[in-house]
Amino acid sequence: MTDALIKIENLYQLFGPTPKKYMGLVHEGKSKDEILAETGHTLGLKDINLSINKGEIFVIMGLSGSGKSTLIRHFNRLIDPTEGVIKVEGTDVMKLPPKELEQFRRHKMSMVFQRFGLLPHKSVLDNVAYGLQIQGVKKAEALDSAKKWLETVGLAGYEEQYPSQLSGGQQQRVGLARALCTDAEILLMDEAFSALDPLIRSEMQDQLIELQKTLHKTIIFITHDLDEALRLGDRIAILKDGEIVQQGEPEEILLNPATEYVEAFVRDVNRARALTVETVMKDPAYRITAETIKEALEQMRGFKQDYGYVINNDGYQGIVKEDTLQEAYDDDSKADLTNELIEQVDALEQDAVLESVIPTTLEAEFALPVVDTDGNMTGRLSRGTLSDVLGVRH
Ligand SMILES: Nc1ncnc2c1ncn2[C@@H]1O[C@H](COP(=O)(O)OP(=O)(O)OP(=O)(O)O)[C@@H](O)[C@H]1O
Ligand SMILES: [Mg+2]
Q1: Residue 86: pLDDT band by 50, 70, 90 thresholds?
Q2: Which residue CA neighbors atom 1 of ligand 1 most closely?
Q3: What pTM was estimated for this model as a whole?
Q4: Atom of ligand 1 minimally distant from the CA of 71
Q5: In angstroms, what is the span from residue 64 Cα to ligand 2's centroid?
Q6: What is the pLDDT of residues 334-382, one digit of tens each?
Q7: Ligand 1 proximal residues by C-beta, below 6 Å
Q8: How far apart are CA 388 and CA 394, in angstroms?
């Protein structure tokens, strides 16, 4: 975790007229409900610690009322914490004087809202250019840039329309174009796709993933939908009643849910679709790198299985069995390990989703080798591992 762009430390948010007065109760560990009953104050966030890296999509997930919007509003200081530190590039945002805070809000971050947040009396083009104009960019330049971004999100030709003339999905694209137009390094997206119907939502997710490949922004994405979180997130933090119950990479959360609450969430996820081979494979053991049959047999004697993966300078070549080697050795003890002895078993690609490799893996006589895009063996996937991960009895 070297490249932290945003750091949140021990952040608390207690809503009510005199929050400071009751922070003692929070630190004593009283629950949200107890605090509300005793003081009339709502505990919005409790001891949040996050470190968000430059260039990642960090998803904050939780049910309604868990504190997602409250948390994201601290990032650009739309609200101030009751306690805690918010650092962006090492700068304590709480200590920024008003002028600098305004600059920071305008230039560092931009936000995409759940309900689009477009100005109804401005054209689509003006809506997109607006963010740039308040940054002080000249009108002509702002309009040029706005046009370009509208094209990028697939809305060329709609420049002169008004928001009410567009569908929900199109309006959300305008919102996205407006946020991207400002060149802000950090994009805050609060349930940005939640109002869209499933098909358009999935298209928008694809578009965001595609855009991110060239933009490399730091994106904080809020959702209450685990599938969306898994699809978009490089890392995910799960909020419950204002507390983070788990944070980690999607596969970590899927494979090792930290609490029963998270477990209940992940139970219904289609793991075969959410996980790639790389996330579940075993280490790339049982490699045969020998050039002669004699050496290959010696390597194989140390194995716990009676076959190995032949590897040379060009990467993975195929599988060789011990009895084949033994026969060849009995025939000629000085011969080289040649291609005829090697079975051409196709390797799995490490980036493949599990779903796509289920039949091959289940039918294979061997644990299949896994390779990277250069053909280097990076792991093994057996029938047993696959069944365990997918929760199938075998
Ligand atoms: N200004 C406020 N004053 C008092 N309580 C608030 C305020 N804003 C939020 N809360 C409370 O903080 C908690 C978290 O609210 P928040 O809006 O952050 O939830 P959320 O996770 O974004 O929910 P949703 O998915 O419905 O948008 C709730 O209990 C809410 O009632
Ligand atoms: Mg919200």
Answers
A1: very high
A2: 15
A3: 0.81
A4: 18
A5: 7
A6: 999 999 999 999 999 999 999 999 999 999 999 999 999 999 999 999 9
A7: 15, 42, 44, 62, 64-70, 224
A8: 8
Pocket test for ligand 1, best of 43, 59, 68 (most atoms within 8 A of CB): 68
pLDDT digits (tens, 9 = 90+) for 25-79: 999 999 999 999 999 999 999 999 999 999 999 999 999 999 999 999 999 888 9
Distance CA(92)–CA(78), nearest Å, equals 15
Among 3.30.2290.10, 3.40.50.300, 3.40.1190.20, 3.40.50.970, what is the CATH number of 4-108+184-269? 3.40.50.300
Q: State in Å: Cα 112 to ligand 1 middle.
A: 18
How far is ligand 2, taken at its centre, from the CA of residue 161, in Å? 29
Q: Are 311 and 340 in contact (CB under 8 A)?
A: no
Task: Band the pLDDT of 394: cuts 50, 70, 90.
Answer: very low
The runs of H, that is alpha helices, within the chain are 19-27, 32-39, 68-75, 98-107, 124-134, 139-152, 168-181, 198-215, 226-232, 250-255, 260-266, 271-274, 277-280, 293-301, 322-331, 354-363, 383-390
The model's pLDDT over 136-183, given as tens digits with 9 standing for 90+, comes to 899 999 999 999 999 988 899 999 999 999 988 889 889 989 988 888
CA of 340 to the centre of ligand 1 (A): 67
Percent of the chain with pLDDT over 70: 98
Q: Does domain 278-390 have CATH number 3.60.21.10?
A: no
Contact assessment for residue 332 and residue 307, using Cβ atoms and an 8 Å cutoff: no
Enumerate the domain spans of the chain: 4-108+184-269, 278-390
Q: Which atom of ligand 1 is nearest to the CA of 44?
A: 12
Amino acid 169: pLDDT: 84
